[in-house]
């Protein structure tokens, strides 16, 4: 399937999720799926230009293919940060035009940028001039009460003129005042047909859909209309969902690891990070959905959430957690 040049390498992706898709989460996901495209949490230009660059940009080599999502609205700053992304070895840089949080709005970026498509085009052009890796945009279909398809069509058309050819469409409006980020993921209605229409109107662009997708059957249904599907919280809370992505959507062999193998690899990974002085609870928290729906999963989660033991670096929690699942864990 991957030999077909018309198929995007981003056929299935895991969304950038603040406080969730850090490097430990991405390492975990990569054990389950080799081909799913992974995204970092959003990193602001200010954090990179005035903060600790290695803390924000360091990642494990195993995480490729990997995209850095940036938050910002100053073309020159974004260009500098895109160049950093390329220097650090990222495979893509993505501009956030979809986050509706008030904190992001105060920084004049995120979803509020959709009201200024020419500025977004300038940002994209500046980044593309600075790097050779792809520059992509993640956005909503509208903001506040602006819900006509023409709005997002014109937004995409303007940005495409700046050279962007990959758009990730969260198929809901962003309500900038009155709804929390969580409510913005749930209350505005999903309009997948808007993303489908974008693909019809811009057949040469890659159009990817995001929002509310929970099963691989739904992924398959969307792929009949668009180039890729981005999974969000379902991939985080039910990560074994990703185990069949490589076979089903990339024509590649599925992972040969069982869930037990993944746990063993993560225990070893946690040991390496512990030796560097890191808190292993920052690793185990991403694993809690691995046995979702299985007998013994509650006790397994409880053990891997024992902050007292995790803060002491007690790696025996991994072995103890497995006992709740029995000797013969299903793959």
From TrEMBL:
Sequence ranges assigned to domain DUS-like FMN-binding in this UniProt record: 14-312
Residues annotated as transmembrane: none
Reaction it catalyzes: 5,6-dihydrouridine(20a) in tRNA + NADP(+) = uridine(20a) in tRNA + NADPH + H(+); 5,6-dihydrouridine(20) in tRNA + NAD(+) = uridine(20) in tRNA + NADH + H(+); 5,6-dihydrouridine(20a) in tRNA + NAD(+) = uridine(20a) in tRNA + NADH + H(+); 5,6-dihydrouridine(20) in tRNA + NADP(+) = uridine(20) in tRNA + NADPH + H(+)
Cofactor: FMN
SUPFAM superfamilies cross-referenced by the UniProt entry: FMN-linked oxidoreductases
GO molecular function, one term: tRNA-dihydrouridine20 synthase activity
EC category: oxidoreductase
Site, as annotated: Interacts with tRNA: 96, 182, 185, 298, 301
EC code(s) of this entry: 1.3.1.91
Highest taxon of source: Bacteria
Keywords from the named record: Flavoprotein, FMN, NADP, Nucleotide-binding, Oxidoreductase, RNA-binding, tRNA processing, tRNA-binding
Alphabetized Pfam families for the sequence: Dus (PF01207)
Annotated catalytic residues: 99
Chain sites annotated for binding FMN: 16-18, 69, 138, 170, 210-212, 232-233
PANTHER family for this protein: FMN-LINKED OXIDOREDUCTASES SUPERFAMILY PROTEIN
Family of this protein: Belongs to the dus family. Belongs to the Dus family. DusA subfamily.
HAMAP family given in the database record: DusA_subfam
Function: Catalyzes the synthesis of 5,6-dihydrouridine (D), a modified base found in the D-loop of most tRNAs, via the reduction of the C5-C6 double bond in target uridines. Specifically modifies U20 and U20a in tRNAs.
Protein name per the record: tRNA-dihydrouridine(20/20a) synthase
Lineage, highest ranks first: Bacteria, Pseudomonadati, Pseudomonadota, Betaproteobacteria, Burkholderiales
């Amino acid at each position: 399937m991957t030999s077909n040049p018309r198929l995007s390498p981003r056929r299935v992706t895991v969304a950038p999720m603040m406080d969730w898709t850090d490097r430990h989460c991405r390492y975990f996901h990569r054990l389950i799926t080799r081909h799913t495209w992974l995204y970092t949490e959003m990193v602001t230009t200010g954090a990179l230009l005035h903060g600790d660059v290695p803390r924000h940009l360091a990642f494990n080599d195993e995480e490729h293919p990997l995209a850095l999502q940036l938050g910002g609205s100053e073309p020159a700053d974004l260009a500098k940060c895109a160049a950093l992304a390329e220097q650090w070895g990222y495979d893509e840089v993505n501009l956030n035009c979809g986050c509706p949080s008030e904190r992001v709005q105060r920084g004049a970026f995120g979803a509020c940028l959709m009201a200024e498509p020419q500025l977004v085009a300038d940002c994209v052009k500046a980044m593309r001039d600075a790097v050779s890796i792809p520059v992509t945009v993640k956005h909503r279909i509208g903001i506040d009460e602006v819900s006509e398809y023409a709005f997002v069509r014109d937004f995409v058309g303007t940005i495409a003129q700046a050279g962007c050819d990959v758009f990730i469409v969260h198929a809901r409006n962003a309500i900038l005042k009155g709804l929390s980020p969580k409510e913005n993921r749930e209350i505005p209605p999903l309009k997948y047909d808007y993303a489908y229409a974008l693909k019809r109107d811009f057949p040469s662009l890659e159009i990817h859909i995001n929002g509310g997708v929970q099963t691989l059957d739904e992924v398959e249904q969307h792929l009949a209309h668009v180039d890729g599907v981005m999974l969000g919280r379902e991939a985080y809370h039910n990560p074994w969902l990703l185990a069949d992505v490589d076979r089903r959507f990339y024509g590649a062999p599925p992972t040969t690891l069982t869930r037990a193998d993944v746990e063993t690899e993560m225990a070893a990974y946690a040991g390496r990070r512990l030796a560097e002085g890191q808190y292993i609870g920052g690793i185990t928290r991403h694993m809690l959905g691995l046995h979702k729906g299985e007998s013994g999963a509650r006790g397994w989660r409880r053990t891997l959430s024992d902050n007292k033991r995790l803060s002491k670096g007690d790696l025996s929690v991994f072995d103890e957690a497995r006992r709740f699942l029995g000797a013969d864990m299903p793959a």
